[in-house]
Amino acid sequence: MQPTEPRRPNRGGLTEEQLTAGRRRALLSADPGRQRGPKIFTEAERQALFARTPRPEGTFEERRERRRRAIESIDPDFWVEPTVSFHTHP
User: Fold this and answer.
1) CA–CA separation, 23 vs 46, rounded Å?
2) Distance CA 80, CA 72 (A)
3) What is the pTM (predicted TM-score) of this model?
4) 36 phi and psi, to 5 degrees?
5) What is the rounded distance in angstroms from the CA atom of residue 23 to the CA atom of residue 14?
6) CA-CA to 76 of 20 to 30 Å: which in 11, 51, 56, 65?
7) Distance of CA 37 to the CA centre of its chain
8) Half-sphere exposure in the Cβ direction for 70 (13 Å, CA)
């Protein structure tokens, strides 16, 4: 089925020629000796990142119990199955 309106030009996007020119510039300016892969953070950067991250209240088990109670308060018929922990010793 043919559209009833003629196609409007894409005003927000780049033309194919602009995309091709940008790819060519990127390839020519790429540093062949640059290390590929994830960026390695320095220890100071890593500490600054985690300093901005809020720590959750309570231990993992306390948070899990609060989450379970919150779910049960919303839907009493919903049963949160207790997870088996392989890291605890009797």
Assistant:
1) 33
2) 8
3) 0.33
4) -90, 155
5) 12
6) 56
7) 17
8) 6
| 82, amino acid identity | P
Tokens for 80, please give them. Answer: 């949160």
Counting every residue written for the chain, the total comes to 90
pLDDT (tens digit per residue) in 6-17: 676 666 678 888
CA 66 to chain centre: 25
How far apart CA 66 and CA 68 sit, in angstroms, is: 5
Sign of CA dihedral 28, 32, 33, 36: positive
CA distance 70 to 64: 10
